[in-house]
Amino acid sequence: MDSSPTSRVTLLSRMKRLLPSRRFRFFFPGARQSAIAQSTIPPPPRYTTASTARPEVTQHNAQSYHELAQRLQRLSPPESNWYGPGSVQIVDAAPFASGGFSDVWKGTFQNRTVAVKSLRCYSSPEFDPAEVGIRFLKELWASDKLSNPNFVRFLGVYSTPTHPFALIYEMMDNADLGQYIAQHPTTSRLKLLTDISRALEYMHGQDITHGNVKSKNVLVDGDNVARLGGLGSAFALSLPASWSDVESQRLFCGFAPELIDPDAFGLVHARATKATDMFAFGMLAWEVFAGKHPFAGNVEAAGIFSLFRNNRPPRPVHPEMTDRVWNMIESCWNQDPFKRMTAADVVDVLEAELF
């Protein structure tokens, strides 16, 4: 699985063969609006993360998305476990976390508390069945393949008419990385960053790129081990149309310059690579030591243009911020992708400082 145009076309073609053409229409990037207009599926009702509960959906809508998910099971990893209605009990009426494409619900599964990440099928007309199906398959394959102590543990797929595309993950005892550091100001930053760098080293060794390394995608377990999650962008990267909200600001401040303006680097497409992951890690490391995200307080465009002009935030003051660690951070966010440290190099530096 990769994000090349060829693999995307192949995946869409295989999806077409699995689905009845009279009920689903598929499209390629650039044909979004016309494809949506041609779709025979009724427009999904609106759903926002501010809502107190998921709204009712039409029986046809729910059955259509659920049927798509069941058919996509044939394209899922052979060893992945799928669970249907009644397997997971959603505890609350609203999600406890939300991202750009999904909501995370608290649930119980096999006598344990779990996090159920449900792709938001009904939130916007911009999400049609093909796009949701591709994003679901990519995160499923990445989650299934990345079995490592520094990743949030993947438990299986949960698919019902209400949650057609949902992934079950182990529930972490603590908050995300930013919240955890705020609640535990004396915790070792080097230890947390070492955990994250080990996850990236393992991931890159599998020839998988993350594409969205940021503090909200790092969770801390009961043993105070940082675990990397948020694998929805692991195989593909598409820039949001708007830079206006706070979440986009946090996301874009970790974007490498070649993702902001591919043309300036001689690239045809903005595509996540190991080098862009390391740039994002450098920004994340700075945030861990500074206690705030880079360019905090700037309007979003100013922060983005600062990154593109090779401006970087100053060295933060922290007892664990040594010259070697600072040099590592500067290497990670080097303007030239080929001069950035690899994840393996970063692990070597942090383990030497930590031990």
UniProtKB/TrEMBL annotation:
It comes from the Eukaryota. PANTHER family: MITOGEN-ACTIVATED PROTEIN KINASE KINASE KINASE 20 (PTHR44329:SF288), SERINE/THREONINE-PROTEIN KINASE TNNI3K-RELATED (PTHR44329). Gene3D superfamilies: Transferase(Phosphotransferase) domain 1. The lineage of its organism: Eukaryota, Fungi, Dikarya, Basidiomycota, Agaricomycotina. Keywords: ATP-binding, Kinase, Nucleotide-binding, Transferase. InterPro entries: Kinase-like_dom_sf, Prot_kinase_dom, Ser-Thr/Tyr_kinase_cat_dom, Ser/Thr_Kinases-Pseudokinases. It comes from Thelephora terrestris. GO terms for molecular function: ATP binding; protein serine/threonine kinase activity. The keyword Transferase applies. This is Kinase-like domain-containing protein. Residues 90-355 form the Protein kinase domain.
